[in-house]
């Protein structure tokens, strides 16, 4: 039996959205994964590094899954709920966790790390990354690309202008900071939202998709989308991702 709109809303509003674990969406939403396999590539780079930094680690989910961490491993995070999750995951692995607002300046000496990584950073402070990398060191990152999930954003907000999250802009900024880009790839990935609870959970968690989102503010639009999903099937959107690697 189909669950009611009110039931789905109540459930999605009450669940925790701390950290970057999206397992609550299993069976309710899907998103294709980039072909390059960030976690696998990350594990290979971590295995040979001496000192590594993970910027914006979230709840430490990705870093904690690396089989072999470098002798010196540090992670930064700014959001208090994520800090608590990351501490529980990373400290047993011997990784240090630093509470930081993740804006310049990063609280590390120059030439400290031979590997700096970040998955889906809000901003990439290229000059700071270049400063803290050792000569020959590497920055490795998977980032949100241009107009990611724009179909969902525009459903609530109307037509939007272009995005600054352009891979070629990232290349130019890295090179301006003195880094050499050695790899740059981009993909568009299909997403499906199968019920309105999945939409609400996603918008509560990925807050930049609809920056002013709340159920109260958008209840009319949510109800209309709920009816549309029930009649026509999953709401389809596309996430965009790019992989960038640069050397000092």
TrEMBL record:
A Pfam family this chain is assigned to: Methyltransf_11
GO biological process: methylation
Highest taxon listed in the record's lineage: Bacteria
Keywords, comma-separated and alphabetical: Methyltransferase, Transferase
Keyword field contains Ribonucleoprotein: no
Bilayer-spanning residue ranges: none
GO MF assignments: methyltransferase activity
Methyltransferase type domain boundaries: 53-140
Keyword rRNA-binding found: no
Name of this chain's protein: Class I SAM-dependent methyltransferase
Organism: Nonomuraea guangzhouensis
